[in-house]
């Protein structure tokens, strides 16, 4: 059973196709170093591309601390004025 102090907080980043991969990679690395699990929520092919490029950039930052990143990919559904949006959620965890 997890207690409140054992729970790892999640930090969510919404990613657009115009999000710079180096800046996103840096933000991921900072969140991982702070003990968070990062959840990337890109919507659209360009945003998925930026997310995937940012993960190895983040790995290059955290590897100097002996941290290795792992990812889990799932789907999420979100409501918008135009209807439901189905997107990909990428959980990035440090170990």
Order of strands in the sheet with most strands: 1-2-4-3
Secondary-structure element order, as H and E?
A: EHEHEE
Number of helices: 2
Q: CA-to-CA gap between the ends? A: 20 Å
Would you report the number of β strands?
A: 4
Low-confidence stretches: 1-5
> How would you classify the helix and strand content by structural class?
alpha+beta
Share of residues in strands: 35-45%
Main sheet characteristics: 4 strands, mixed
Q: What gross morphology would you assign?
A: globular
Folded structure, characterized:
By secondary structure, this protein is α+β, with helices and mostly antiparallel strands. The protein contains 2 helices and 4 strands. The chain has helices at about 20-35, 45-60, and strands spanning about 10-15, 35-40, 70-80, 85-95. Strands 1-2-4-3 form a 4-stranded mixed sheet. Helix 1 links the parallel strand 1 and strand 2. The two termini are about 20 Å apart.
List key phrases describing it:
95 residues, alpha+beta, four-stranded mixed β-sheet, 2 helices, 38% strand, globular, disordered N terminus
Short description:
With 95 residues, the chain is an alpha+beta fold. It has helices spanning 21-33, 45-62, and strands at residues 10-15, 37-42, 69-80, 83-94.
């Amino acid at each position: 059973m997890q207690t409140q102090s054992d729970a790892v907080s999640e930090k969510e980043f919404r990613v657009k196709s115009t999000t710079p991969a180096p800046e996103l990679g840096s933000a991921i690395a900072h969140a991982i170093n702070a003990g968070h699990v990062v959840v990337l929520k890109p919507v659209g092919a360009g945003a998925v591309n930026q997310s995937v490029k940012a993960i190895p950039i983040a790995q290059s930052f955290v590897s100097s601390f002996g941290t290795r990143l792992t990812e889990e990919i799932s789907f999420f559904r979100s409501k918008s004025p135009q209807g439901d949006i189905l997107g990909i959620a990428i959980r990035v965890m440090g170990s």
